[in-house]
DNA sequence: ATGTGCTTCAAACGTATGTTTCAAACAGAC
DNA sequence: GTCTGTTTGAAACATACGTTTGAAGCACAT
């Protein structure tokens, strides 16, 4: 948690504040005062606020994408020849995320929340940065999904992947708030691992749903007003 | 599309800009210049930026929640006694959203995107506003879901509902961009109705997934490094 | 025409932001 | 110790924001 180097102190503070409040809502002054560092240090070490955002993502995304690649390597090796199943692919992704070495106990949820924010908040510069830095593991994941669901048409698969992304990004991006609600309403504590364990079967079942229902079932239509 | 009244022009512009860029990233000056209205008009007619955000939500959420209530009424009447099925409940919601009278062709995706933002961007004041204004149809929907999935534990159901919300809000909120990609890559046209038709079976299948897998399947674990 | 209540307008206010500046402090090599 | 390149510090910069102000414009009843 506590690095004494200025750069790391800034990254730690920024990561946490970005995850809590989003990018635009977090000012450099909040970051530098939380990091106990001079305001000018951000622009000195990173160049700009946007570059700091990129650095925050790079710090955890680069090791994560390496972990993910090797997880996919091992998975494919174990399946020699046969394409991995949908469940195996989703689990490889989940386990890679969960097993990433964390700087502190909030590590995973910060990680997830930042990924959700990256997708959710428009932030054009961020999306471009992520696309050109991490497109490889992403398209590899897409390829595995395709092999694991040969029964789906390209269009069906496309949309169902979007649904999966949405459920994941959305849930993770508000997971702290959701956990609070759950704690208050049901008196239950939840870890990110448990959320992931609930999410994977949901996604797998949705992905493999039998019918694409192109018209509503009889009797479900509202009468025309 | 084009209302000549100042209040409506502001609401139209704000709605579109908020959906595109989020709340903090949209300034009053952007809104008023898009609406071709004086800057002070927002504070004159609405009182503050936050109150404008509330008004944007109220304008589409109030009629929607009325539509939804009556859809649920009809559904329960048709089922007399028996609880509606999960598919029926989801379809009632979907049809209500799709059939809402829209101000323009982007109506539904703006609507969905705003709902997603309301959940995603922290914006404490918004969450409070929505909770106290629209808790009724929300909890009614939750009640129907509960009756339709008696096999789920409260905690499982809670999380699966979050997953459904996520898949829906996320997909609909970026459906314009997604449709563009689909058109270019696969040469297919897609309507919001068709997306909904693909979404509902996905959600229903995920919601009814058999197992909540609290440990990964054997052989899916990564060897310890 | 005159007065009245509501609406628009240009301008300014105070505050917060990201960024820059330049002198001071520091560390390591000679 | 002195020089050199790097890092920190306090202060200022320019800009953008939400909000407020007070005069001007307008519609309409009297």
UniProtKB/TrEMBL annotation, chains A, B:
Keywords: DNA-binding
Natural source organism: Marinobacter aromaticivorans
UniProt domain HTH tetR-type: residue ranges: 4-64
PANTHER family: HTH-TYPE TRANSCRIPTIONAL REGULATOR RUTR, TRANSCRIPTIONAL REGULATORY PROTEIN
Matches recorded under InterPro entries: DNA-bd_HTH_TetR-type_CS, Homeodomain-like_sf, HTH-type_TetR-like_transc_reg, HTH_TetR, PsrA_TetR_C, Tet_transcr_reg_TetR-rel_C_sf
Top-level taxonomic group: Bacteria
Family matches, as PROSITE patterns: HTH_TETR_1, HTH_TETR_2
Gene3D superfamilies: Tetracycline Repressor, domain 2
DNA-binding region per UniProt: 27-46
Protein name: TetR/AcrR family transcriptional regulator
């Amino acid at each position: 948690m506590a690095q004494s180097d200025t750069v790391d102190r800034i990254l730690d503070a920024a990561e946490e504040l970005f995850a809590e409040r989003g990018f635009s809502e977090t000012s450099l002054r909040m970051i530098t005062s939380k990091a106990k560092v001079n305001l000018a240090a951000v622009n000195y070490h990173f160049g700009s606020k946007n570059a700091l955002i990129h650095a925050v993502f790079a710090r955890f995304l680069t090791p994560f994408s390496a972990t993910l690649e090797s997880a996919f390597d091992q998975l494919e090796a174990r399946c020699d020849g046969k394409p991995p199943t949908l469940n195996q692919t989703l689990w490889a992704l989940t386990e890679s995320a969960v097993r990433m070495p964390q700087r502190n106990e909030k590590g995973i949820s910060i990680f997830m929340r930042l990924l959700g924010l990256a997708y959710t908040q428009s932030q054009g510069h961020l999306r471009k940065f992520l696309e050109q830095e991490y497109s490889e593991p992403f398209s590899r994941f897409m390829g595995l999904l395709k092999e694991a669901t040969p029964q789906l048409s390209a269009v069906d698969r496309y949309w169902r992947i979007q649904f999966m992304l949405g459920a994941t990004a959305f849930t993770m991006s508000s997971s702290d708030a959701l956990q609070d609600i759950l704690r208050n309403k049901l008196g239950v504590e939840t870890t990110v691992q448990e959320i992931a364990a609930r999410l994977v079967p949901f996604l797998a079942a949705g992905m493999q749903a039998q019918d694409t229902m192109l018209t509503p079932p009889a009797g479900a239509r509202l009468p025309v007003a």
